[in-house]
Amino acid sequence: MKKTSPTIRDVAAAAGVSVATVSKYTNGSQRFSAPVEAKLKSAIETLGYRSNPLARSMITGETRTIGLAILDIRNPHFTNIVKGANRIALQNDYTLLLVDTEESQERERTLIEALAQRVDGMIVSSRMPDDSVQWMLELHKPVVLFGRSSIFPIPSVGTDGYLAAYMLTRHLLNQGHRRFAYLGFEQSRWNSERIRGVQACLEEQGLSATVYDAAAPSPQAGERACSAIMLGPNRPDAVVCYNDLIALGFMKEARALGFALPQDVSIAGFDNVSYGEYASPALTTVDLQSERMGELAMLKLIDALAGKSDSEYSLLEPRLVVRESTPRREAS
Amino acid sequence: MKKTSPTIRDVAAAAGVSVATVSKYTNGSQRFSAPVEAKLKSAIETLGYRSNPLARSMITGETRTIGLAILDIRNPHFTNIVKGANRIALQNDYTLLLVDTEESQERERTLIEALAQRVDGMIVSSRMPDDSVQWMLELHKPVVLFGRSSIFPIPSVGTDGYLAAYMLTRHLLNQGHRRFAYLGFEQSRWNSERIRGVQACLEEQGLSATVYDAAAPSPQAGERACSAIMLGPNRPDAVVCYNDLIALGFMKEARALGFALPQDVSIAGFDNVSYGEYASPALTTVDLQSERMGELAMLKLIDALAGKSDSEYSLLEPRLVVRESTPRREAS
DNA sequence: ATGAAAGCGCTAACAA
DNA sequence: TTGTTAGCGCTTTCAT
Known about the structure:
Two copies of one chain form a homodimer.
Chain A: H1 8-15, H2 19-26, H3 34-47, H4 53-60, E1 65-70, H5 76-91, E2 95-100, H6 105-116, E3 121-124, H7 134-137, E4 143-146, E5 156-159, H8 161-174, E6 180-184, H9 191-203, E7 209-213, H10 219-230, E8 238-241, H11 244-256, E9 266-270, E10 284-287, H12 290-305, E11 313-316, E12 319-321
The structure holds a DNA duplex (16 and 16 nucleotides).
């Protein structure tokens, strides 16, 4: 059992050719005479040679690795993004270097800067404000962002949150709801456009939603926020949550507080995470195409890597997914 | 805006010292005279120099990257593993190279072999049979596996599935259940020990479970399997599922078929994925400590990398989590 | 405490 | 078609 793997030089020696020939052979960048090809093949076979990608990268300057920085792999929304990005990466012979920043702003920048050195390009999901994205441009690596930067022309993808919120609210209105609460998550870059969508739709009917805030985009935060909303003086008959996770937590706690679902209150979220379908009542939501977002981001990055940096911001279309948590309600 | 980043040579020139000095400085491997240190510091600062990890790796032979190969990032069990592994990796200044093999056997080997070349070590979750793990040893990189190999002495971690199943069954027995079904997932390496745990416990009471198989470890597979079990001639009053995902799907379909939950049938799973808690009825399960598994695997790998290859197989303790889906049942 | 020089394993001109 | 050569950016003896 040899300690160190065979190098290109070992192969060259074994096959009686030069290292350049071996290099060209393994990269398939040229044709060879039959005898040489045969020798090469057998030498590589018997030695069990595998070209060292590191050494290759040093010269070519490309690692065929894409950095993917996300806020929390446990959130199914991000999990779906990873899945989508991974699929496209694999198809294009790229590998994913994953960074889970754990929703922490400080780590984020350090981690991403370190990441930048090891990859050809990056896909970043961040909660950093638009104007502090400058340094990312200075990393000299192509970057694709989730959510448009209003300041810098960085390629990015997202789903139309205004429309998504508008559609969902429209649906709730149609179902006869009148007293709205929006349980948001301020730190997210998507939060404000969702609020706008909700309020714009309600205003047309002379209504408006009371806005609350969850401390995190998680079920636990949804649970915590529930009592203040449901037992306060202003009990809503429809609660729109920032995402499905918050909605799921909210539903659990509402039930624990003695409310009957979906009779007493309608609840809806965003993202269309898989588990909303298996909750009871099944959760009405807006599909934001998380997985497609991941695919698209990777596609854009690969394009950028290939020099064709065409489109800037790609907007995906949301789709309303009506399930049991938002039934028809009679006017009160 | 410069095209190419500054190299160690640029810094050396700017600071008026040798490259060796710069190298030692950036690696903190030596002390320096005050004037030199000052020049170095400012040169690095103004040039915005960052050492190229690739070049470094070429020499040191370590990439400070760990490969993590899992079957499906969308399964919360694996997501938790990634989370745990990531946390430990970060603490030790390692980065994760993620490979999602998408439950595909063919890709698996190719992907893992490619992965092996780019990392210092790997953590692998696989469905490959024990005896076809040989080639992994020949990659000449430390590997930690999930689930013990009965043939090769590879470091590995897992949770005691026999005990987990036994405990869960005992609980169901205590609750008064008598007609058991086990809805498994044959392709998993954990499946058979869970069956054994269930049957062993039941045998003590002169009972036995009817064994069914789901085609995948997913909610969809659980849904598909439901009718054959619940509408067949042998209707159970307790269904133990291979994992929570299958259980969640099963519950949804059971309700769709007109059964009342949890009155008509008790359902339980394994893994304690977060969403079981937010289902209704909340799902009884066995916590297999997925996240801890990820942490432990990473810890073991880092140990192996440091040369201390002590323990072989680490077994975590399962913990029963009783919720609403398995209520007390009167003897029929 | 600092520097000169020899590579790590590979690719990319350029020759032959 | 094949070989020679000069590095990629860095670390690491070994001198000084």
